[in-house]
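ok trying again, last paste got cut off:
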Amino acid sequence: MKAQPRLDAKLRKDALTIFKASLASVEPGRVVHQTVTRSGETLKIVQGKKVLKTFNLSKTGRIFVVGAGKATAPMAQALEKILGARIEEGVISVKKGHGLSLKRVKVMEAAHPVPDKAGVRAARTIKAVLEAAEKDDLVFSLISGGGSALLPLPSDGLNLLEKQSVTKLLLACGASIHEINAVRKHLSQVKGGQMARAAFPATVVNLMLSDVVGDDMDTIASGPFVADRSSFEEVAVILAKYRLMKKVPAAVRNHLRKGLTGQIPDTPKPGDPALSRVTNVIVGSNWISLKAAEAEAKKLGYRPLILSSSIEGETREVARVHAAMGREVKASGYPIKAPACLISGGETTVTLHGKGKGGRNQEFALAAALDIDGHEGVLVFSAGTDGTDGPTDAAGAMADWNTCRRAAEADMNPVKHLQENNAYPFFQALDDLVMTGPTRTNVMDVRLVLAV
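nice, full thing came through this time. structure:
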């Protein structure tokens, strides 16, 4: 008789298989090919069964490709296969290590999440390409998560170091991605619809891989081609909320004062002429990845249940709720009977208390480990679809009912590691980090609770 695999090993293998299926569903090249179709000289932009735009390439001027984000290189690669020599020029900004060798589109690599000078050069180059576009030309914009940091062109009167300091302050205090992007837009020459101003009057097709809760188009990479709903007034409220107004550089405070008093124009709002020739399309999202995870879990014999694709909040608290639901499945069969796979997405935040190494997904797994300790048959898994969790080389981590026991045997205290935001060395020692390398996609996080 063939030996059965250990339960904990089987659950780990299943969790990874489900996660890989979720990644495959939002592979950037795949979603671009699903959205942009070509037959001879007819080019169509489709979403599902709906045709959004049709172009006659024989009557179209030059075609330009621009973009920014962790997933932008494979998106550009797909466009090159579709359009070939019709692409006149292209420039994209991607995270270091996320580039590809392309034929007609120049790839510029820059830092993420804190912007650097390479990102400034890329943003300036992209803006120049847009400004060269004319009325009969067609611009494809390829935007994915990370685009905000990879398009750092500071407003006049500000420099990169000042923008970097603001980004660091916002990341450290636990601000949401929506709040961070609202601030970034108002310290930038390109975000919040300002790329559309540069490209006007050319026609723009803006393809976005969403990495934000709710798929708000003006939040994805700070919406360079989308009407901006935020304002200078909102930025002032955000900085006041986190008590940062006195901590940001004086030049930033001065810039915001000019915006609040009307000395600097705000970002383009709905109805702005610069946005009239832009078609915005979301080609991939967290929900799509969760549906793929659901299908794979069912294939593996689990009863899947998607909880939500819009979960936000403090990571530790969200983890405790997920752990409690896993325990409930075992105890009462609610909200679904075992073998169950609870699935959720979104993006939580971590308020830093210590100086350890980790990310929100690793912290999620560590916090949940404490609450499922001893509850046999329960495993939690959390990973970023971009393959990167915080400032680490891990996508996330997983934990089960034996994690705390194994940690004690290795002379590690999970509570202390959690207090120090030090999840990475904890899971590294247990060999429970999720390591994917750069996935070149980015639709927020995927979390799984397996209960058997």
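cool. The radius of gyration is 23 Å. The chain has a mean pLDDT of 95.
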